[in-house]
TrEMBL record, chains A, B:
Membrane-traversing stretches: 21-41, 53-71, 92-120, 126-153, 160-183, 195-217
Membrane topology classification: Multi-pass membrane protein
Its job: Required for the export of heme to the periplasm for the biogenesis of c-type cytochromes.
Cellular component GO terms held in the UniProt record: plasma membrane
NCBIfam families for this protein: ccmB (TIGR01190)
PANTHER family associated with the record: CYTOCHROME C BIOGENESIS B-RELATED, HEME EXPORTER PROTEIN B
One GO biological process term: cytochrome c biosynthetic process
Protein name according to UniProt: Heme exporter protein B
UniProtKB keywords: Cell inner membrane, Cell membrane, Cytochrome c-type biogenesis, Membrane, Transmembrane, Transmembrane helix, Transport
TrEMBL record, chain C:
Biological processes annotated in GO: cytochrome complex assembly; heme transport
Alphabetically ordered keywords of this record: Cell inner membrane, Cell membrane, Cytochrome c-type biogenesis, Membrane, Transmembrane, Transmembrane helix, Transport
Protein name as it appears in the record: Heme exporter protein D
One Gene Ontology cellular component: plasma membrane
Signal sequence extent: none
Keyword rRNA processing found: no
InterPro entries, alphabetized: Haem_export_protD_CcmD (IPR007078)
Record keyword Transmembrane present: yes
A Pfam family reported for this protein in Swiss-Prot or TrEMBL: CcmD
Membrane topology, as annotated: Single-pass membrane protein
Family: Belongs to the CcmD/CycX/HelD family.
Lineage, broadest ranks: Bacteria, Pseudomonadati, Pseudomonadota, Alphaproteobacteria, Hyphomicrobiales
TrEMBL record, chain D:
Record key words, sorted: Cell inner membrane, Cell membrane, Cytochrome c-type biogenesis, Membrane, Transmembrane, Transmembrane helix, Transport
Gene: ccmC
Record-stated family: Belongs to the CcmC/CycZ/HelC family.
Function according to Swiss-Prot or TrEMBL: Required for the export of heme to the periplasm for the biogenesis of c-type cytochromes.
Domain of life per record: Bacteria
Principal location class: membrane
NCBIfam families assigned to the protein according to its UniProt record, in alphabetical order: ccmC
Keyword Calcium: no
Protein name: Heme exporter protein C
Topology class, membrane: Multi-pass membrane protein
A GO biological process held by the record: cytochrome complex assembly
Lineage: Bacteria, Pseudomonadati, Pseudomonadota, Alphaproteobacteria, Hyphomicrobiales
TM spans (from-to): 20-41, 61-81, 93-112, 124-143, 155-178, 198-221
A molecular function (GO) term: heme binding
Gene Ontology cellular-component annotations: plasma membrane
UniProtKB/TrEMBL annotation, chains E, F:
Its biological purpose: Involved in beta-(1-->2)glucan export. Transmembrane domains (TMD) form a pore in the inner membrane and the ATP-binding domain (NBD) is responsible for energy generation.
Native organism taxonomy: Bacteria, Pseudomonadati, Pseudomonadota, Alphaproteobacteria, Hyphomicrobiales
Protein name listed in UniProt: Heme exporter protein A
KW GTP-binding (keyword) present: no
SMART domains referenced in this protein's UniProt entry, alphabetically: AAA
Entries under PANTHER family matching the protein: ABC TRANSPORTER I FAMILY MEMBER 1
One Gene Ontology MF term: transmembrane transporter activity
InterPro entries per record: AAA+_ATPase (IPR003593), ABC_transporter-like_ATP-bd (IPR003439), ABC_transporter-like_CS (IPR017871), ABC_transptr_haem_export_CcmA (IPR005895), P-loop_NTPase (IPR027417)
GO biological process: cytochrome complex assembly
Protein family membership: Belongs to the ABC transporter superfamily.
Amino acid sequence: MTALLAMIRRDIKIALRVGGGALIGVLFFLAVVVLMPFAIGPDLALLQRLGPAVLWLGALLASLLTLDRLFMADHEDGSLDLIAMSRTPLEFACAAKALAHWLAAGLPLVVATPVLGLLLNLDGSASLAIAATLLVGTPALTFTGMIGAALAVTLHRGGLLMAVLVLPLSIPVLIFGVAAAGAAITGPVSFGTPFQILCALSLASMVIGPFAAAASLRQGLD
Amino acid sequence: MTALLAMIRRDIKIALRVGGGALIGVLFFLAVVVLMPFAIGPDLALLQRLGPAVLWLGALLASLLTLDRLFMADHEDGSLDLIAMSRTPLEFACAAKALAHWLAAGLPLVVATPVLGLLLNLDGSASLAIAATLLVGTPALTFTGMIGAALAVTLHRGGLLMAVLVLPLSIPVLIFGVAAAGAAITGPVSFGTPFQILCALSLASMVIGPFAAAASLRQGLD
Amino acid sequence: MTLGPYASFIVWSYAVCALVVAILIVWVALDYRKQQAKLRALDAAGVSRRSKRNAAEVS
Amino acid sequence: MTLIDLANPTRFLKLTERLLPWLAGLTALLLAIGLAQSALAPDDYQQGATVKIMFVHVPNAWLSMFVWGIMSLSALGTLVWRHPLADVAAKAAAPIGAAFTFLALVTGSLWGRPMWGTYWEWDARLTSMLILFLMYLGLIALWRAVEDPSRAARAAAIFTLVGAINLPIIKFSVDWWNTLHQPASVLRVGGPALDKSFLIPLLVMAIAFSLLFITLHLAAMRNEILRRRVRALQMLQAAEQQGQLRSGAL
Amino acid sequence: MRLTGRGLRCVRGGREVFADLDFDAVAGEAVAVVGANGAGKTSLLRLIAGLLALAGGSIALEGGDSELTLPEQAHYLGHRDALKPSLSVAENLIFWQQFLGGEPADAQSSLAAVGLGHIAHLPAAYLSAGQRRRLSLARLTAVKRPLWLLDEPTSALDAEGQAMFARLMTAHLESGGLLVAATHTPLGIAARELRIGGAA
Amino acid sequence: MRLTGRGLRCVRGGREVFADLDFDAVAGEAVAVVGANGAGKTSLLRLIAGLLALAGGSIALEGGDSELTLPEQAHYLGHRDALKPSLSVAENLIFWQQFLGGEPADAQSSLAAVGLGHIAHLPAAYLSAGQRRRLSLARLTAVKRPLWLLDEPTSALDAEGQAMFARLMTAHLESGGLLVAATHTPLGIAARELRIGGAA
Ligand code: HEM
Ligand SMILES: Nc1ncnc2c1ncn2[C@@H]1O[C@H](COP(=O)(O)OP(=O)(O)OP(=O)(O)O)[C@@H](O)[C@H]1O
Ligand SMILES: Nc1ncnc2c1ncn2[C@@H]1O[C@H](COP(=O)(O)OP(=O)(O)OP(=O)(O)O)[C@@H](O)[C@H]1O
Ligand SMILES: [Mg+2]
Ligand SMILES: [Mg+2]
């Protein structure tokens, strides 16, 4: 337990120092949100309709951009060797790393969502609903992305290959995240069902992710 | 000249080997294009309207995902020291690296665009027009992104910080890229003007990018 | 046999299937030839019989 | 897995050598019968002649899932028993599975246009199939990206097992969400709800396609074994040259 | 306590590095693994540490804690020093101490023992090569483990650092520890030699 | 040819590392920079190579090519070895040769000279620590430069490798080259000592 807490604390510390603090995550999110109107064109109704999609894409992007170094950095400096040799099961260590990553990179996005909702012309309750979907959904992105990060170490490969492996796995999260968020705004479909599925996806990925990642890392040691 | 050619050849080789080949870039692009309908919702007319934006976002994403290691990898293994000491001016070396990156990561996207256009319900001439905008526009993404990559080395920072620095710089490219592509499809605005601006942006970034990056790298040596 | 108003869709389905299956068959056959040729070249280069046994074990 | 017991690659090669012609012949025969039967099958009272697309669409759709299932079993063989033939089986199956998935998607789209009025709809069945196709492509990319075959095999095995979660989603997507795609009418509890005049050609085609898969898979596995043999021999050749260089240098 | 390897075979990247290697290490005695570049010294240490899969043979630790696996009772000190540049010297050490399960009290004294007490607050990015190496060595004393696996531990250390490290090793051996070190230069303590790959 | 430094001052991370350092190196003579860990040996080499900004003083190379700056006439061999793991041994060397401007013909002989001729086709990721170091050394002979700046060049080399490297250095000095090496162990050739930071 001390070991896992130490791991979480260390990873958060590094993420905040190297990434430039939690604010950078929020700033990135802001940049994505500001970017969208330029890509789509300045149509307010359309923007509002696409609001949840934009926020979810931002979250996906942020996780893709930061996850690929999750294990690679530890592998390159030799930390992974020591972690694999330690008395803490590798599955738990992986889970701790993913949790730390989510706390440093995912949570700030969730917190910033209500503010950014204003920019996208969303009203208060819709923003809160989207924040809720992000809160339960982004862990799924982190924990599935973790599998890709571990495979990257095993394969000694990086770059887009990881994204190609991870994207299909994160499509369901995106679908139900946007569906739930969209339901909260426009409302014909019920919010509950996709939201529950989102929760289920998160829980499932929290179980499968660490095991798959640990298995992959064990295979990849050399 | 030999030196620059050698640099380009090396970087392409590494990009293809580590990233898993040019095909991976195309595959990534495909995944992004497939992803969009999930985020946006299954509305074919809307999809068609957003087609250029989706393709441009895919290109932006691919460059963001791969650019951050452009100089960092060379810095970490000490190559950058030798490059800085060499007889090749650092500006040219930077330009060569960016060119190699574009050849390995940008060009495949351009080539794949006509095929992906089919998925987005775009007709042949529209796809070709978008491919043309990507062809002249993606170098601008690479050459402005390079500045961020160089700053990342100077600041000893990575992750989202770089994206935050690069995104504002790439907004103009995105605007005119999407505008030109949109004009080619729907046609009320003329295609020529935004396209020319796009060309101008690319040319300007090809001049400014290497100088800014080299200056930043010189500051960052230690 | 009449295929009705949607004949082209039916024909296309079968045609695409035939094409893809044909590609698969050709790919497998060509790959086989290529590997055989490489093995023969290696044999000609005189990689010894003993090492061939080892190679079989390694693979 | 019929092949796992043939532990020795050399034995496997000998056996496939003898088996392949017979398998190929049988496949061709069954395909001919199946095609003839599907040509003679009556029109559906609802769907008209387009029901003929079913005879290629459904076998391809089944096989696309079945192949991923085979690869998952091979993945277990790779991870648990570390059997080299399991690596070979998984690697050889991926492109074939991708081809079947592609065909299921294309024939489905071609069927969807007359039936639903659209080539493509983002519903659960179609989407999960597309994800399957993307995962096949990702898997092939993964195999191709790494030269060291055993390293690639272990990573691919893990990815395959994680991706296997998609199979039940594809299968039950029509039950869990109301979609355009029709629910299971052959593989379902309570027996098939399909008329004999359609069921028999469909089953014949399904068996023919399965045989086609087995034939292609065995041939591709043979190629892969040969490829590894070539690689190992090349490495031995390099090692021999190294030995000569060493003794020359010292 | 006794560490034995029997009939070890190592394959890396499809090429055999060594085969049929036997070795013994007993408590209180240092084993120095020597051999030419590329002979397989690092590979042997990683095999023992469980970081490489054995292609043949077996490794066993007799007399250790039967509840723990071999790697869990070992320290591995490789070329890569498992330091995070953005954390301070003290933070780096304290993390490993907590993660590997030592008492947090003596991080400062471990740092002082390797001569880094005065720069505990500096980020690890600021360290010189020898200082980084010293910081890795501090891990050995901050967390108690009976088996030390050391890969060229004295590289980058100055003369005073090598003497300091020799004292650390002696103390470890005297307290009944085991020690296997791959090295090209003398370790500074008496050690039994294990040669890999003939006198190249 | 003659390399001189006068009144050098080095500041890193806001802390002064050394000040008022003078040194001379003349052609045909090796200078061994010695000193305790953290004394500033690496920093001095990086100052000379132009990879660190001088906080004071000046460095000049007399008798070199007047068209080229000092760094352009120097080889710098640091702890980080500037190798790309995904390229083969030969590809790595040939790249540096082409980029730094040597004749492409002799890559193979440079590799043979450092004892890597037989593994030229292996990816650099497969190399052991000593083999990596040898590959970096190959750069020194593959591209001709009058000034060699070497940071602990013998670390990770086996005895045979150290002897090989001593021969390389001797040949370089005999052909009128300059050589400044930071080191904790004897270089294997006669060298003038430059001590930084007192007898720590
Ligand atoms: C691109 C579009 C399509 C895709 C990806 C697709 C995919 C699939 C899949 C994966 C199966 C196997 C399901 C299972 O075994 O339970 C299947 C079966 C089937 N599909 Fe499609 N399909 C598509 C379009 C269509 C269309 C347009 C029709 C007809 C209107 C259709 C009719 C059927 C039928 C009748 C079955 C057999 C179901 C059974 O008997 O279990 N499909 N399809
Ligand atoms: N990147 C850096 N930023 C700030 N300070 C640094 C940096 N690198 C080294 N230092 C500091 O500068 C001083 C000299 O470091 P340097 O690497 O030159 O020492 P050295 O003599 O090479 O030591 P060693 O024998 O350990 O290699 C050290 O006190 C170190 O803490
Ligand atoms: N990651 C790897 N993949 C494949 N082969 C490797 C790998 N690392 C090392 N090898 C090969 O294994 C052999 C032994 O390497 P090892 O690192 O164990 O040597 P070593 O005795 O430690 O050498 P050194 O004295 O240079 O450190 C070498 O021939 C090397 O080429
Ligand atoms: Mg070693
Ligand atoms: Mg130093």
